[in-house]
Structures are given as C-alpha cells and as structure tokens.
Amino acid sequence: MERRSFLKASAALGCAATVTGCKTSSDEPNKVPPVAPVDEVMDWNFCTGNCASMCPLKVYSKDGIMTRVETENDDDVIDGENGQVQSRACPRGRAARQRVYAPERLKYPMKRVGKRGSGQWQRISWDEALTTLADKIQYTINEYGNEAIHFTQATGGGFISAGNDGKGGFAYPLPHSMRLFHLLGGFTATQGGYSAAQLRWAGLATDGVMRGSSYDQMAKSDFILAFSSNPRECQMAGGGNSYAWTRYTAGKELWIVDPKYTDSALGIETEWLPIRPGTDTAMIEAVIHELDENGWIDEDFVREHCMGWTQDTMLDEIQDEEPYRDYIRGLNDGIPKTPARAAKITGIPEETIKRLARKLHEAQRPFILQGLGLNRSKVGEQAVRAVMILPWLIGKIGKEGTSNGGFCGVYRPDAVPVATSPNFLLENKVKQMVQSSNIALAVDLGTEFNGKEHGLFEQLEKQAFMTGNRTPDKSLAMPIKFIWSACGNSLVNQTQGAEYSERVYSDESKCEFIAAFDIFHTPTTRWCDLILPAQMDVEQNDVGFAQTENTITPMSATSSITPAFEAKTAWDMHCELAKKLGIWDEYTEGKTDEEWKRQLWEERYSHHDDGSGEFPHYDEILEIKHKRFYRPGTKLVHKDLLPGTKFNTPSGKVEIYSMTLREMALATTQPDPKDKMPATPQYFTPHEGYEDEDTKHDYPYQFVTSHDKRRTHSLNHNNIWLAEAMQSAVWMNPLDAQKLGLSDEQIVIVESMSGKIAARLKVTPRILPGVLQKAQGSWRQLNDNGIDIGGCVNTLLGPFYSPFVKSMCSHTCRVKISAAPASIVLDKYQD
Ligand SMILES: Nc1nc2c(c(=O)[nH]1)N[C@H]1C(S)=C(S)[C@@H](COP(=O)(O)OP(=O)(O)OC[C@H]3O[C@@H](n4cnc5c(=O)[nH]c(N)nc54)[C@H](O)[C@@H]3O)O[C@H]1N2
Ligand SMILES: Nc1nc2c(c(=O)[nH]1)N[C@H]1C(S)=C(S)[C@@H](COP(=O)(O)OP(=O)(O)OC[C@H]3O[C@@H](n4cnc5c(=O)[nH]c(N)nc54)[C@H](O)[C@@H]3O)O[C@H]1N2
Ligand code: SF4
Ligand SMILES: [Mo]
C-alpha cells in the first residue's frame, strides 16, 4: 500500500520531469532529446550488473509497464565541460526492458519436488517458503553450528566494494542477507573473490600497493604497455574507463599484450602482441634478460628500493636462495632466459621482444599496467609479479606518467557504498572463510578441506567480506550443509568445474539445503531446493551513486514499474524471514526501509562531503533525484619515492624475491605436482598450460574464457536483444579453421578433459592461431548426450585453483574442437 501510493506520487513527479526536463532547443544533431509521449513517466534508476559502473538510467513506463530506457543525455552537460563526464549506459543497461520481461523471470516461490537438479518444481506460497527456509536455517545452526552455513559470492544486483567502486545501493540483497545471518551468529563467508584474488595477494606481496596510477597519467606517458587489459568491454560506461582509455591513449605509443584482439585495441594500438595464454612470464623474463645484457637495468635504483635482484640485496635468511638476476642469466639451471627461448614459448618473435626491451629503456615515463586477465590463470601469481617488477628494474616509477604494472583505472573519488555501513552489516562471528571458487570442493571434502592445500582463511577485519588471512594450519570446522545464493550464479555456472560442482551438489547428504533469491531461473536455481523471486533494480526505489572519472552522481532511484508477479524486495523478504526466525525486532531495529536508507545515507554523508556541500543530504537527493558534480583528482602511484622509502612488504623493500611467497610455499602443499610457487617470478608450464605434455597432444588448443560486452557475467545471457547484437561464439583463427576444415557460423563441439560444449564458430584473425576463446557467462544446459548446448565455458574447466592464492584460474584450459553432428540444437540464446 505504502509503496503504491509513493509510486503514484513519484509518477506525478516523473511526468513533471518529462515536461520540464526536456529541452526543446538543441542545434547539435546528436543531442536532440527524444520526446516522450505525454502519458509516459520517467524515473531515474540505475543499472546494477557487476561491471562496477552503476550507470544512471532513465526508465520510462506507462501504466506500470516499462516502455523504454534512456541514458544520461541531458544537454546541460557536454562531455568534458567543467570537467564532468556523463555516465552513458552501455547497450546492456539500455536493454533493461528485455531483462525485466524475460521469460525466465521467477514469478513465485517454488520448492523442489523431484531429485535435486531434476528440474521438477512446485509453486508454493511465500508463507510456506519462508517457514521452510527459517526451519532449515534453525535446523542447520542447531545441528551443525553457524560454520555449516555458507553464502556464495553473488554480484548480480549490485556489488559491494570496500574500495572505490561505489556500487551497491540499499536494494542490493547481499547486505540484507549478511545482516540477518550475522544476527543469527554468522556464516562461513567467501574469501578472495573471483575477480582479482591472485593480483591482490601477489601484487601486495610485491610492492605493498598493487593498484596503479589513474588513467589520466597515461596522457603524460611516452610509452604505454598493457597486459590483459580490456576496459572498452569491461568498463563500458560512457564516462568510465572505456572513455578515459580512448582519451588518454590517443596519439600515444601503445603496446597491447593479449591473445585476443580486444575492443580496447581496434586500431589505436601501436603494436598488438598476440601472446600464448599463460606465457607472459616467459616474455618478461626475456625482456629482463635483454635489459640486463645491454646494461639497461638501473642497478643503483634497484639496490636502493628492491630486494632479490642480486645476491647483496637478499636478506640474510635467504642467502642460500637464488637471486633473480642469476635465474635470468641461467647461472644455476643452465638456461639463460633469452628472447630466442621466449619466442618459442610465447609466439612473440625474438625481434619484437628485443624491441620491447629497447622501448622500455628509451622511454622516460613508461606506463605499465595489467587488467585482470593475467591473474585468472593457473599460475597467474607469477605473471602478475613479473609485470609488476618491470618498472622497478628500469627505475622508472613514481614519476609523472608512470605506473607500477598493477591494475589501473580512472581516478575516482573514494566512495563508500550505502549498504556496507557497519551499522547495517554487523559483525560476522564466524571467522573462517573459504576461497570463493573452491566452495564445491569444501562441500565435497567437508572437514578435510584445509588451509594447507585448498584455501582456508580467517576473516581480517570486523565487517570484512572477501578479505582474510591464510590459515595453513586449519581445517574447515564443520562441513558446509546449507548454501544461500542471493543474486549470484556461481554455485555452478560461474565457477570453474561446473561438471564437478553438479556432482557434488547432487549428493543431498553433503550440502543438505540450497536456496536462492534471484530474478531468474538460472543454472544455479536448478540446483536449489527452494527458490525465491526477487525484484529487479529498475523495479525498486533505492539510493546510491555512480562514479565516473572525476564525477560523482548521487541518485535516488524510483520506480513506476509494477514488480513481476510475487517478486519481493530484499528488505521485505528479509524482514519476513526475520519474523519467522523470531528476530524481527533486532533485524529492523524498529525502523522502516526508508528510515534505514536515510540513516545509512547520512552515516556515509560525512565520508563524501568535502566541505563544498556538493554531496546531497538524504532529503535533497530524494527531491532532486539525480545530481552530478565534479571532484577532480589524479593518482600517481609511488609518487613520494625517496631513498630509504619503506614499502608495505615483509622486508620493507619492493620484493623481487617475495618473502610472502616463500613462507606460503613452505607452509602449504600442492595437490598438483606441476604447481610451484617460486619466490621470484618464473615461467613454467602448469597443468593444461602451453607446453603441458600430459594434455597438449589430446587437447591441442589453448582456451581462454574472457569477459565481453554481450553480458555482465551470466546476467543478460537471456537478453534477446543482446543475443541478437552479439553472438556467443567460439573464436578461432582462420589458419586453424582452414587446417581443420571448419567454417564461420558452423556449430562446433569443444571438448576438454572436463566436459563438452556446443557453440557457433567465429572465424577471425582477432585470436591467435592455436588459441580459442569464448566469453564466460553463457548458461549451462546439458542435452541428453551430456553436451552443454548452452555453451557455458565452466563446463570445460576443471575444479582447479592457483598454487599460491588457491583461486580461480579460468584462463588456463586445453581443448579439442570438431564439427558438431547435424543433430545438435543450440540453446536459443547461443544461436
Ligand atoms: N570461466 C570463467 N568463469 C568466471 C569468470 C571468468 O573470467 N571465466 N569470471 C568470474 C568473475 S570475475 C566473477 S565476478 C563471477 C561473477 O559471478 P556471479 O557473481 O555469479 O555473477 P552473475 O553471473 O552476473 O550472476 C548474477 C546473478 O544475480 C541475479 N540478479 C541480477 N540482478 C538481481 C537483483 O537485482 N536481485 C537478485 N536477487 N538477483 C539478481 C542474476 O539473475 C544472476 O543469477 O564469475 C566468475 N566466473
Ligand atoms: N561487459 C562486461 N564487463 C565486465 C564484466 C563482464 O562480465 N562483462 N565483468 C566485470 C568483472 S566482475 C570483472 S572481474 C572484470 C574482468 O576484467 P578482466 O579480467 O580484465 O577481463 P577478461 O576478459 O577476463 O581478461 C582481460 C583480457 O585478458 C586476456 N588474457 C587472458 N589470458 C591471458 C594471458 O595469459 N596473457 C595475457 N597477456 N592476456 C590474457 C583476455 O584475452 C582478455 O582480453 O570485468 C568487469 N566488467
Ligand atoms: S556499463 Fe555496466 S552499469 Fe553501465 S549500463 Fe552497462 S552494464 Fe550497466
Ligand atoms: Mo569479477
């Protein structure tokens, strides 16, 4: 009732906004504001898929039905004027209507009636659903303790980031679930995340910082070297990284190292180095060999700031270990890491590697960066560190225009998401955490799952979610018996080892209960015992803010759309569940959602207010709905570098030899004998790597599972407009296609050691020979012959993890490929 009357009021305001907000006079052809039919209403809302942009959307509707979406397009702000940039939504945001009305929308609560995974469901009432859920929660806690409860990483309806992403309004379900379960005594959380676990740990272990300079520094650079970085697809929002990437690389010498010719190249690059996946470390070793041989290493600078290059810089306790220079020169293994050697491994010509070394020598202000692609490899830790030591060896760091080889992006004022306020989240009393991508393994192994081998961690800070300290001496206190997925598809689809995960979850005696709160019936909900329908971002009222370069956009989102069937908001669902659990008073603290939003916004206010009064108070943002303001800044990493500077690493130096890796190598064991954890960045072949003798003959192609513009992870897989705009195909180089007699558009079967998928083939020179790529995120769907006709790449990946961080290594896989039999029919969204 309350909400409907609010909607009426906001609909009236929306009408007013469409009348007054439309400027009629504009002589610039690309700035003509579309004229809304008079009975259409407009609400500001935002797009919450996890691409870390949270673009504002203008959502138009009529009589509760969404009619269309527009992006920020007001002509009061011209890009760049007053420093502001608009945050223009990408095609995924603009296709929101196809999400809202997709046939897979969950309509009602449902319980499983057949065997788990059999797809037999029965519609039930919300009352029955929440009674069942409350009973199962109570039963699990009483019988096994809170450690037996686990939340999957779930990033669909927003994203919590303690850093500077500023995503996650109040409506994002995960914080609500966290609050509720924290009140009940906590749960085993995930650690590390899927995105950047290896980069974070291995990067911090190197220079104590990891994150690099902001993109605007590229404008002052004379040489940009980018590894596995694709901002034009991975941060597509008009005012975000993609725009800044284009602006600041303009006219620059830009070298891109990537097996895939991404949209971030498209002709602006000086050189594309199509490297074989997982071999970057070999190329960097060779670059360093070339620098060393020519006397281009800045030895004085390295001695001042770094540990581990030469014997005299090694700490006393590691004097018996090999310094990196000796390894590069091959003094002990007899293998000098020459460009000729690296050329054979990487596929990058010797001459190019030598030229790259010379470029780095001649450049005054090289900007070296990496995206997250390297870090999601089997031994990504080595590659991450190899890139990060390059600027130190040439002594070109801390000066304008440089960066540290870490992960970079636009300068963003440090924003704190609304619903991550400690007062809302409370403290998790369960301290153990499981590496995000190893959950099925934890369920399978129960209390044998341990920190020595598999990735068990202990929560670091009070409200921490996804950050923990390794505990190699501990095992899981209790098997995982209950899994809760609130806006995630990582139970099966998004986690490598989909086949293995399904086997684990099909054993109902292991994890006894799985429940999800989602907007769609997904490959995750198929494995649930109970499914609860959620409202989508654009169906709800919320507060939050977008951030693009130098610009903050606080918003109060409203909705005039009638929510789908019986879908509930996160607040309503959790309140009702709290009531069933007898903790409604504690959960709500007697406040309404409106009162919580006000309180949390005001709690965050002081963080965002710089004294200028630009950041709006709650009442102001409710009234004005959308405000954009400029907050300039830049970030130059290690800018205060002085002789004797102390770094946040065990030795206080930049660690070319990492004491952290050494310590972990001693404290942990590796299930795979090919996995190693050398303390200096070294190339070697892991399982399914380029030179892996055990797999390369049966599975001759390397396979990369990148992120692309068609989806945000699995979100939008079922968006028919986006499916039409971009095929979810397997990419293959024309030389390979010719060799195998395969042609463009043909349906192929891709098979790995772990599973088989069917998909269309795209024959394109945008992928190097010997490598296939398909974007992650397609929905897994097995046909009667066990072939995944949905084309989910995690069907092909085994349940493996990296040696040091024990995290996702989804870019390391070997496959074979053949023409599909004529009988194969693809899932409609793949075709
Ligand atoms: N092979 C391979 N696998 C990968 C990756 C890779 O590179 N390769 N990348 C990994 C990475 S980096 C990540 S972050 C993970 C992401 O994996 P997930 O966090 O699982 O993200 P999504 O696949 O987007 O799933 C989001 C879910 O949220 C639901 N949802 C969307 N909006 C709402 C909402 O408003 N409310 C509710 N309740 N639900 C909503 C969607 O239906 C969907 O089921 O995937 C990982 N998986
Ligand atoms: N459109 C869209 N945007 C997104 C997302 C999405 O799903 N869709 N997901 C968001 C999230 S949560 C994340 S974590 C980020 C992910 O962002 P990234 O991790 O940066 O994206 P990826 O495409 O996985 O990897 C980037 C590039 O690394 C390359 N690569 C893979 N292996 C290697 C290698 O061994 N060496 C080199 N040099 N390159 C390699 C891939 O070909 C790819 O072009 O994107 C975010 N933005
Ligand atoms: S860039 Fe991301 S947040 Fe913006 S519209 Fe696209 S998917 Fe949504
Ligand atoms: Mo991610």
UniProtKB/TrEMBL annotation:
GO terms for molecular function: 4 iron, 4 sulfur cluster binding; electron transfer activity; molybdenum ion binding; molybdopterin cofactor binding; oxidoreductase activity. Its cofactor is Mo-bis(molybdopterin guanine dinucleotide). Keywords: 4Fe-4S, Iron, Iron-sulfur, Metal-binding, Molybdenum, Oxidoreductase, Signal. Gene3D superfamilies: 2.40.40.20, 3.40.50.740, ADC-like domains (2.20.25.90), Dimethylsulfoxide Reductase, domain 2 (3.40.228.10). SMART domains: Molybdop_Fe4S4. GO terms for cellular component: outer membrane-bounded periplasmic space. It comes from the Bacteria. GO terms for biological process: anaerobic respiration. Belongs to the prokaryotic molybdopterin-containing oxidoreductase family. This is Molybdopterin-dependent oxidoreductase. The lineage of its organism: Bacteria, Pseudomonadati, Pseudomonadota, Gammaproteobacteria, Alteromonadales.
